[in-house]
Amino acid sequence: MLASLTSPGDPPYLYKLTSIAYSLRSLSWVSPQGGYVLTTKQKAKMTTKKPTAAWSKANDKRQLMNAQRMDLISLTAPDFSTSAFLYEDTKSRPCAIAYKGRSLKSSFHKRFNDINERLNYVHGWMDDNKAQKAKERISSVGDVLVSSWGWEQTNIDYYKIVRLVGKRSVEVVQIGSMCKDTGNMTGESVPDIHTDVGNRFIKQVTDSTGDSIKLNSFSWARPLEFIETNGIKIYRSHFYSYYA
């Protein structure tokens, strides 16, 4: 039987078992194999946002994938960013398998010495993931990004953030550049923030620093360094090269 639990993410953790929420840290265990003794003081009403249809579909598949495990308990963060299944192996040892978002590929699958070690590990992993998400976008409208790419020559492209989208994405537009040749088919460029090039597009901030975007399979755009004098931003120049 699958028991469904939900954690709010901030200690003390609350977990939802069917329609009632309990504080799992204050539970006493019935046996080393699992099972809880619950008191009325441990019951608490809890509201969480509703999952998307895509998340629910993915989670249904994950439940089917893990349905044959013994003493299975499903653990899901209230923002649905992480999920874990706690179970016992054939030797009654506590185990856990966990997933991020809608992924069907597990982030970890581990066996533990005891149930407390397992809970602490899962709690820590959920906390780390929450902290990582908090860093997923620190960008602001007006920020300029630079992309340096190329194999036999160095190409420099500039982008400007024009809108923040949701919690993790940005709308950007490529902007022009002002170039000055400094050598034999080499030079330095700076962005022309007043000239848009091409159409706007939306990208998810995926770099761990929370301020970069992946443009394609071979290039990233990262924040362009600058100094500010009397309210005017002076951007760092970038080296480029080309071949005739």
Q: Can you summarize the main beta sheet?
A: 7 strands, antiparallel
Radius of gyration: 25 Å
Q: What is the approximate shape?
A: elongated
Integer average pLDDT:
79
Give the CA-CA distance, first to last residue: 69 Å
Strand order of the largest sheet: 15-16-11-12-13-14-19
Question: What is the number of helices?
Answer: 2
Q: What oligomeric assembly is this protein in?
A: single chain
Structural class: mainly beta
Number of domains: 2
Strand content: over 45%
Describe this structure in words.
There is one protein chain. The protein has 244 residues and is mostly beta strands. The protein has two domains: 3-134, no CATH class; 144-241, no CATH class. It contains two helices and 19 strands. The chain has a seven-stranded antiparallel sheet, with no helix packed on it. It has a five-stranded mixed sheet with strand order 1-7-8-9-10, covered by helices on one side. Strands 2-3-6 form a three-stranded antiparallel sheet, with no helix packed on it. The longest helix has 20 residues, at 115-134. The chain is elongated. Mean pLDDT is 79; it is low at 1-48.
Short key terms for the protein model shown above:
single chain, 244 residues, mainly beta, 7-stranded antiparallel sheet, 5-stranded mixed sheet, 46% strand
Write the layout of secondary structure elements.
Blueprint: E1 3-6, E2 14-17, E3 20-23, E4 28-29, E5 36-37, E6 43-44, H1 53-66, E7 70-76, E8 82-88, E9 94-100, E10 108-111, H2 115-134, E11 144-149, E12 155-165, E13 169-183, E14 186-204, E15 213-214, E16 220-223, E17 226-229, E18 232-235, E19 238-241
Parallel strand pairs: 1-7
Antiparallel strand pairs: 2-3, 3-6, 4-5, 7-8, 8-9, 9-10, 11-12, 11-16, 12-13, 13-14, 14-19, 15-16, 17-18
